[in-house]
Amino acid sequence: MLLGCLFHLVISMWRNFHGFMLYSVLKLCLLKPKSLPPLDPEVLSVFVPPFISRDDIQVINAGHNLNKSKRRSFRKKKERPKIENVKSLNGEQKAPDTEDITVPKDIDLIGLPQLCFPGGLYITSESKEDHIHFLVFTDVCGNRTYGVVAQYYQPMQDGCISSNGQAHWESVQTGKMPVCFVPFAICVISRYPYFNALKDCLSCFLVQLRPFKDLDVEEHIKEFAAKLFLIPSPPPGPLHLVFNMKPLQIIIPSREDPDSPIIDLDLHLPLLCFKPERVLQIMTCILTEQRIVFFSSDWALLTLVAECFMLYLHPLQWQHTFVPILSRQMLDFVMAPTSFLMGCHIDHFEEVSTETEDLILINIDNGDIAHSKMAEEEPEIPDVPAQAAETFIKRVESLQLHYDLELCHLRASTDLGELQMRRRAWQQKLNTEVQQTTLQLIVNIFREVKDHLNYEHRVFNSEEFLKTRAIGDQPFYKKVLETYMFHSFLKARLNRKMDAFARLELSTQSEEDRLNLMFHTPRRLTMEKMASKLFNPQYRISRRMVISMPNLQDIKLPEGPTRNSSLRRIETGVGKSVTMFSPHPPYVYTFKIPEIHFPLMFQCVHSYYTDFFNHLSKAINTLPPDSSALLARYFYLRGLISLMQGKLLNALSDFQNLDKTDLRIFPTDLVRKIVETMPPSERLQADRKPELKKLISRVMEKQREVMKIDDHVKNFELPKTHMQLDDFVKRIQESGIVKDIDTIHRLFDALTVGHQKQIDPETFRDFYNYWKETEAEAQEVNLPPTVIEHLDKNECVYKLSCSVRTNCGVGKIALTQKRLFLLTEGGRPGYVQIAAFRDIEDVKSTTAAFLLLRIPTLRIKTLSKKEVFEANLKNECDLWYLIVKEMWAGKKMADDHKDPQYIQQALTNVLLMDAVVGALQSCKAIYAASKLSYFDRMKNEVPMMVPKTTSETLKHKINPSAGETFPQAVDVLLYTPGHLDPSERPGNAHPKLWCALNEGKVVVFDASTWSIQQHCFKMGRSKLTCMIMVEQSQVWIGSQDSIIYIINTHSMSCNKQLNDHRSDVTDIIVEKKNGIPSEAYSSSLDGTVIAWNISTLKVNSVFQLPCQNLTSIKLHNDQLWCCTGSCILVVSTHEFQLQMKIEHHLKDVCSYFLCFQLFPERDEVWASYSGSSDLYVWNTKDFSSTPQKIHLQDCSEITCMIRVKNQVWVGSSGRSQGKSKGKIYVVSAEKKTVEKELVGHGDTVKALCSAEDRYVLSGSGKEEGKIAIWKAE
């Protein structure tokens, strides 16, 4: 039997590899090899780092306190290793004091040897080829550790085999023993799934071991383990590490970004083993959290295929037991009652399938899927949603999965390195294509989940989500929605996590999706989608035709291929080749790690770290400044090397450089540990350096911030108790019906007419059900093509009347967001225009005589027709009267104020009226519904006349707070012109409008369509104060938290920041030389001005003004104009010497300078004071003279001003028609007179910006929170 195995273990806190070596030693009975039973391998000894002596450790002890608990020496050799000492490694027995060993908590040293020989350990009479397989270990917290095992055979003759140079065989019979071959195994453990890299390492190492005798093997294993221990793991991003392991160059790949998984395997393996339809079935099994067992005759395939499926689901994550390899002793694991994914050898297929029920059995070797035979009924695997499945299958069929086909046209390579590089490049490209294909599948499956989320109250309305799914897709969603995996996915969506799913979903949004972000409108089919339904068999199945359309024939679904859910057989036709867009893999760089020299001594390790540091420093110094992504990776690696050398201050400085190169890879936890374990003397040195002191303060403050993230997810449920107003508001918002609080208050008044001011559960249920039923019915409306052609493609039918008699014939009145039309009945449905809302002149509810009766009639008079439209609406007349008047008033408001949101709000109001009448079913229902006639009441109570000048100048209005519960103040606006860049999507080339809202939020609009492009950035949690486009790829945003955030306009993400200010950042300007940005200046409230090198983000100079309260700066002719509370200072940019000063001249000591503008060609500076309604103009050649004053009528205070051509646009808070308004004054710089007074906001004008001097954009305070676009003349 087998006595044990030599076990070497490498552990590192920051490095990628736990090296783990298994070396078998046998003690045999005198049996012929063929009759030997399988042997039980056991652990003999363990290797742990560092691979230098304790004396050496003491020499370099400074700076190593951080890793003290993890430092271990090699385990001493023993003549007769025993299993007891192995057990002590897991804590079952105490090891002798001379031993100093640590192993990962998730590594079971008792079960590990079985996994290294999962098929059993047999002595053979002939040698076998070396082979490799892969392991995955999971601890109780779900953290995974990965192993790569290499098995090889060595001969044993004359009854002897040695370990550690000592013979263990004692012959008990004479005669020569036959030649036997003994299996050995070497296993390397890593915290990361470097499957290909470790496979290549072990393959090279096996070649190197062949010439050596047993006596020398252990020393080489030590060197191998030490070499792996010294290889750092690359940070996320475009840099891979390369080191030499003769005869191969080993590449350690990085993950694409911090949220992405490491991919170091061939992602197309499952696509070679299974048809695309089978791949979808397996993904369904995983998404529905079944009990899954993979089978194969190849141990390596079990782990690789299982890992591929885990990566296919990204960013969703499997959260249950994951054991891709079970040894023959572990088969009882499949009896577990919970969800799991495991793997077994194909030899155990019958045993597993007959002894355990309700298992999904997946045969990798032949591509079949089956159920275990004990199940009474084989439950069907639900189909992946049809459209998502179809897209996935077409894309998979278009992939080039065979490398040999790629080689056909290439010359034969005679260089091993070239062959390796060529294959790796092909595999990287294919992996990227497979990733994009599977990610697109996940996005297509779950894209519409967001439409049923309420972010404020963290509610998901699963019932309504299911109702909106096609009938054939509902079984799939019913199962998936109940899983832990989907629950975690919901948490990420509600937290607005910008992961791979969110990025792809955002980049593939349709224009309709972007517009829906701006207008919270009840879901209806647009005419464009309705037209597509007519030609799409999928949509032709009517779920429930509640509304019977006039004389529409039933549409029969033509016979088509059925979707087969059978587990055992699936028939597929020959798929057509579809040319799909294949994204190119991101360009990656490689860094060659210096050679590691042996023997293993402190001097050698020190020399290696020194060489590594010097190589990185050389790379940093030779890189151009615009290569910030690569610079960040070099800084990160150099910081790690400095840390291992004990140079903690150098490490902190390198990590601090990540702020200006790539903040996403900043190792917060590691830096915090460095600071906590730093010796007092070094901490004192760090505090003397301002940049390190601020870094330490920032990192430690984050630890002190006790912020419990609310990650609960609640499913929407109807209330069971009476509701007061506040509870009612919350319930309505959770339901997704409407978010605006003022509208919900009016709805509350409507539903409580004649009752106490509380709503009972029955009333709420009736209202909710009627709303949802109406919404579902509207989805079933199918207009004939002859009607659709009269409507705009984005129009939706929101309400249909009953069949009524009109003066234009018999039919149903249809309401869209733009018009009323009659859907006539008769031989063929027809279209009759009743009125566009903007053309309505008058609406009356009256009665018409019919025999002896008076029938309620609706009359609509339009500007374009002489004839008045009349409809005998009977008991619907009063409701339609309210509806038409509200839509008419809303349309007029929208046109007058150039704000399309008004018509959307009016539409919501009329649908709420309809639901109130349907729910109450009482004589007071119409009166109750009238409470929701908001725009009609506004029109009657307060004439909403927009001044002519305002109406002519105002072009459009948009709402950056769309989808929020409350409007939010627009603090800063920035317009960036569009530009063409081959690396960007066409949509990114459009001009953009950047809007800074409260608490660090930034919303980005596409300025060509005024649709939301990026819903919400988060720049800290403080108020944002300024924004500027420094160059085409960078937008800088200043904040009250003293940080300047830098947005990459290509990726639309913030991965850099500048932390040099000590107070609120108040302004940023850019100096251009020959039209090219050369230097940026930023100011802070404490009077500090910093000049920045835009390319390197280094500080060129710092200047401290003699006074504080610095609010804004301007640049002209190498002079910096600085506006402080008490004066305006002019300093030179070269020496920062004071040149001029404008003193505060008002008698009111409480007032201070607010803002100013330069007119250098006119030798003028314009400024305003707090609390003042006057503009003051100084002559820059004579500051001692009294400034000219320009009075602004009806102005309470000037808040902001910008220069546009030869005009000054001044934002203010003022009064108009007796009400507080936000006014804009357009002042002629030449005449010093007000040319226009524009009343476009319901609150103070907080921000102004110019769009290429053609348009001016203004943002208002939190009472309104909208942006107006004005024509500049």
Automatic annotation (TrEMBL):
Residues 67-500 form the UDENN domain. One of its GO terms (biological process) is regulation of Rab protein signal transduction. The keyword Transit peptide does not apply. PROSITE patterns: DENN (PS50211). GO terms for cellular component: cytoplasmic vesicle. It holds the Pfam family TPR_DENND3. InterPro entries: cDENN_dom (IPR001194), dDENN_dom (IPR005112), DENN_C (IPR043153), DENN_Domain_GEFs (IPR051696), TPR_DENND3 (IPR057977), Tripartite_DENN (IPR037516), uDENN_dom (IPR005113), WD40/YVTN_repeat-like_dom_sf (IPR015943). The keyword Signal applies. Gene3D superfamilies: 3.30.450.200, 3.40.50.11500, YVTN repeat-like/Quinoprotein amine dehydrogenase (2.130.10.10). Residues 70-80 have a biased composition (Basic residues). Keywords: Cytoplasm, Guanine-nucleotide releasing factor, Phosphoprotein, Repeat, Signal, WD repeat. Residues 70-99 are annotated as: Disordered. GO terms for molecular function: guanyl-nucleotide exchange factor activity. Its main location: cytoplasm. Residues 1-19 form the signal peptide. It is found in: Cytoplasm. Forms oligomers. Interacts with 6 of the 7 known isoforms of 14-3-3 proteins. This is DENN domain-containing protein 3. It comes from Bubo bubo (Eurasian eagle-owl).
